Amino acid sequence: MNLSFFKLILFGVIFACLASCNTHKNLIYLQDAHLIGADSLAQTKGIHESRIMANDILSITVNSEIKGAAIDFNLPLLPSGAEEAIQKRTNTGGNTSGSLQNYLVDKDGIINFPILGELKIVGMTIKEVQEHIANAIYPQYIATKPIVNVRQLNFEVSVLGEVNKPGIYKADNGQMTILDALAVAGDMTIYGQRNNVLLVRVQEDGELAFHQINLRDKNLALNKDFFYLQQNDKLYIPLNKARGNSSRFGTLETVSLSALSVIISVVAIATR
């Protein structure tokens, strides 16, 4: 009887350890990412650029080595006191005093550019917009190819659900990975479903698209479309069953209580 009793106790302890290990593994992002082959990683080489969307706010400046040649291709400086009003309207923050006015991409993906008129740039990367404008200016208007600088001023994503700091987060460099978004939001809580993150994305035609993301999957790092977020993306992390079943205990506590329940049951059976 004593030997059987101790065997049952040992079984309960082993069960508790295995359950805890499994729970810990479920919390890990990009599991076994170190096993991704070099050939696969080579396909991710290169700097990712987000694409221009409707309602983006852009700063565009044109410069030329020919003195005065690019003046007409730049918007005038902001009038005195206008920067505060623009900050409130666009929520870009920062100091815009003395800067050039900005371009708002309309619902059809078009900006109205000096001299060149309407330019449809939706779906282009920053680099592609720069090349597009430079080629439209040279050689028709300027004898040498101008230097065009484009900045996206309102790149932001929303992170909602089971994170420590849900909110809207901006990226000054116009780039953010899904892990960056979780980092600025204080990371996912232990109650979040790592394998069932919802990505809501506005496509170039304005239609919404919904994607299910598995953050445990190492191959996510190879998928540039989802690993790198786009402007105005929304990430929603739903709660897991442990959180749904009990608001008083976390996942690890629930596992521990389950293991303890097994041990108590085993003891009860053994002592009958």
Element order, helices and strands? Answer: HHEHEEEHEEEHEEHEHH
Please describe the biggest sheet, giving its number of strands, its sense, and whether it closes into a barrel: 5 strands, mixed
Radius of gyration: 27 Å
Query: Could you estimate the helical fraction of the residues in percent?
Result: 25-40%
Uncertain regions spanning at least 5 consecutive residues: 18-22, 94-98
- Count of DSSP-assigned helices: 8
Helix/strand/pairing class, anyone? alpha+beta
Total strands: the figure is 10
Oligomer: single chain
What can you tell me about this protein's structure?
The protein has helices spanning 2-26, 38-42, 82-90, 126-137, 178-184, 224-227, 241-245, 251-270, and strands spanning 57-63, 103-104, 110-113, 117-120, 147-152, 156-161, 167-170, 197-202, 208-213, 234-237. The protein starts with a helix and ends with a helix. It has a five-stranded mixed sheet, covered by helices on one side. Strands 2-1-5 form a three-stranded antiparallel sheet, with helices on one face. By secondary structure, the protein is an alpha+beta fold. Helix 1 (2-26) runs antiparallel to helix 8 (251-270). It contains eight helices and ten strands. Helices cover 32% and strands 18% of the residues.
Secondary-structure map with pairings?
Blueprint: H1 2-26, H2 38-42, E1 57-63, H3 82-90, E2 103-104, E3 110-113, E4 117-120, H4 126-137, E5 147-152, E6 156-161, E7 167-170, H5 178-184, E8 197-202, E9 208-213, H6 224-227, E10 234-237, H7 241-245, H8 251-270
Parallel strand pairs: 6-10
Antiparallel strand pairs: 1-2, 1-5, 3-4, 6-7, 8-9, 8-10
